[in-house]
Each structure stands twice: as structure tokens, then as C-alpha cells.
Design a protein that fits this description.
- The structure is a single chain.
- This protein has about 100 residues and is an alpha+beta fold.
- Helix content is about 30%, strand content about 20%.
- The protein has one domain.
- It contains 2 helices and 5 strands.
Length: about 100
């Protein structure tokens, strides 16, 4: 990974810091040390630009009706996190794209 790629990733993440507070007063993107941010950065560094966050970590429920946190991205993807080490990326219209653990399998 190049310094330019790292810089570009940081600039893309920073767009969310500008957008989210405008849409959700008093809120911001996931913390820079969060699992969601770390996973987003990993994907960006491996060539997948998911865009910037357009929501904060939002209380939501999974298909099993258990509480999770979700973040929506500018490319239409959504990330779901259950508060542990379990992360799920969904494409627009709910198609599962990547799972860090067997989510509802």
C-alpha cells in the first residue's frame, strides 16, 4: 500500500465526518478506532472503495431480531455489527457480500 493510498483513504473517511453531522445532528461516523472503521480501511487498502459513511452507527436489528449497530455507506452498502467480533457487509437490496462469521447460516 502506498502513502498516497493511505492519504486517499483518510480523505474519503473524512468526508463522512462532514456529511453525517449534517444529516444526524450531534452524531458522527464510527470512531476512528472502531472495528467498522478498521474493516473499512482494510477493504479500501485492498482495492475496494465502499465510499464514505452516510449514517452514524445506528441501532438496528438483524434478521434474527437481535440488536445490532448498522452503518450505511455512500455506495449503498450497509455494515452490521453485533457488538462482538461479528461483522456483516450487505450490498444494496440486502444481498450478503461479506461476513466475518457465519451470520444466520
Amino acid at each position: 500500500m502506498s502513502t498516497g493510498q493511505e492519504h486517499q483513504a483518510a480523505l474519503t473517511w473524512a468526508i463522512g465526518h462532514q456529511i453525517v453531522p449534517l444529516l444526524f445532528a450531534g452524531k458522527d461516523v464510527p470512531a476512528d478506532n472502531s472495528g467498522i472503521k478498521n474493516d473499512w480501511t482494510h477493504r479500501y487498502m485492498n482495492g475496494l472503495n465502499l465510499g464514505y459513511a452516510v449514517t452514524p452507527e445506528t441501532p438496528y436489528v438483524g434478521w434474527d431480531d437481535k440488536p445490532i449497530l448498522a452503518v450505511w455507506w455512500s455506495n449503498g452498502y450497509r455494515t452490521e455489527w453485533d457488538g462482538a467480533a461479528h461483522l456483516l457487509w450487505l450490498r444494496p437490496f440486502g444481498e450478503v457480500w461479506y461476513k466475518v462469521y457465519p451470520y444466520l447460516s
